[in-house]
Amino acid sequence: MPGIKPFQAYYYNKDKVKDFALVIAPPYDVISADRQQELHNLSPYNFTHIDLAKELPEDNAENNKYTRAAKTFDKWIKDEVMLKDDGPAIYFYKQEFKILGERHSRLGFIALLELQNPNESKVYPHENTHQDAIDDRFELTKSLDAYLSSIFVCYSDEQRKVEKIFTKHILSNEPLVDVVDEYGVRNKLWSFKDPALIAEIQDSLVDQNLFIADGHHRFKTANAIRDLRASQTDNVTGQEPWNYVMTYFANLDSRDLQIFPMHRIIRKVTKKMDFLEEYFRIDKIKDANELQILLARAGLNEHAFGLYTRDGIKLLRLKNKLLIDEFIKKGSKELKSLDANILKYFILDKLGVKSDDIIYTKDVQDVTSMVDDGTADAGFVLNAVKIKQLKDIALNGEKMPPKTTYFYPKVVSGLTVYRIE
User: Fold this and answer.
1) In whole angstroms, what is the distance from residue 42 CA to residue 12 CA?
2) By three-state DSSP, how is residue 187 classified?
3) 319-347: pLDDT as tens digits
4) Measured between alpha carbons, how far is residue 409 from residues 27, 41, 106, 219, 296 in Å?
5) How far from the centroid of its chain's Cα atoms is residue 330's Cα?
6) Tell me, what's the pLDDT at 402?
């Protein structure tokens, strides 16, 4: 498997930044234009000033959002708004959160992940990507010579070796960062520099398959940066800084690794849905809360969706699994059986729904409110992808449709930066 190693991160200086809640930010790809402006206004040091700088009408090749982000980052370092750690470390990262009133605590760590040639790599993506997003992150990374946000990778640790090291040696120490984000998630970060214990963590990941949970575009960007730098370098050793990418590692075997479903909101439906009765058992449901309960129960043994329209709420259950091979010709059994694919081939394609007319959300409330106020004609509520499905599809070398999984909580941006020095 690719190697992992500690690094000297840049992070916010507590003497310059008194309130970390004003400078951290969600991942760039979940920030709307309105939220971008709000975050920019929070503080001149908010992380979006470099991770998601504003685009201006007069931008050109020499002066644009990427060059401005680079100048801002350089100034922060010069003014000691951000400091470089005094030695190589891995950064333990704990997130405390609630789901439906139940407390959860996800532990992971941030380190560098070695980039390898595709035919050698045991890092498995599971979602397709969009080139525009890769181009954006490529220009930003190239301009700053830095990775601002971690990719999110899952590894297996059934014996909880990493958690035991954390509990015994780190938990009682004061964290570098302790901040509650806008979603109510408490984020704590520790710098850890013990070489012997870091070696134990490295050894525990040897020969493992790693699965990308989030950050597929950033991972592709990192490989593109690596290829560019390698083409410009004589006698590549594999140990160059650009051969690594900043990565957050979480335990695949933890009960606190939460995957939320991604629902589909359809702006316009121009055809009747009479054909649904041919393929699905249809039950009328009283309200959205009952739908979620019944959908989860049906999802244990069936392929099922919730359908929300202004005419009412329905639970759709696929009548016959043998129909899947009839309608979906490409892909493995695991990929064909993915609920998102069944929804596409059995319903959305038959309705002629275009990709631009689909809005993706993890919140059922978004589905109901947009349909109720007439912004959308219909919404499809899905069950979450299971960990086993993700692993099987990734190991097959296949990709799920975009926006199929939502790992919660997101890794906050602004905790660590890896400068390619």
Assistant:
1) 15
2) strand
3) 999 999 998 999 999 999 999 999 999 99
4) 11, 24, 9, 19, 21
5) 26
6) 78
Q: Which tokens in the block code for residue 183?
A: 């979603």
Whole-Å CA distances, 277 to 235, 312, 347: 64, 16, 11
- Distance between first and last Cα of the chain: 24
Q: Calculate the dihedral angle through the C-alpha atoms of 350, 352, 354, 355, rounding to the nearest 10 degrees.
A: 0
Contact between residue 155 and residue 252 where contact means Cβ atoms under 8 Å apart: yes
Rounded Cα gap, residues 92 and 370, in angstroms: 39
Vertex 236 angle, CA 232 and 237, to 5°:
155
pLDDT for res 2: 63
> What distance in Å separates the CA atoms of residue 201 and residue 372, rounded to the nearest whole number?
50
pLDDT tens by residue, 24-58: 999 998 898 999 999 999 999 999 999 999 999 99
Tokens, residue 372: 């109720």
**The pLDDT of residue 1:** 52
The most distant pair of C-alpha atoms in the chain lies apart, rounded to whole Å, by 67
Element containing residue 285 per DSSP (H, E):
strand 280-285
The alpha carbons of the chain give a radius of gyration, in whole angstroms, of: 23
Give the residue extent of every domain in the chain.
4-258+409-419, 263-381
Q: Closest Cα to residue 152, out of 218, 222, 207, 244?
A: 218
pLDDT recorded at residue 285: 95
pTM: 0.90
pLDDT per residue as tens digits for the range 60-88: 999 999 999 999 999 999 999 999 999 99
Q: What CA–CA distance (Å, rounded) separates 59 from 64? A: 5
Bridge partners, residue 153, by sequence: 212, 249
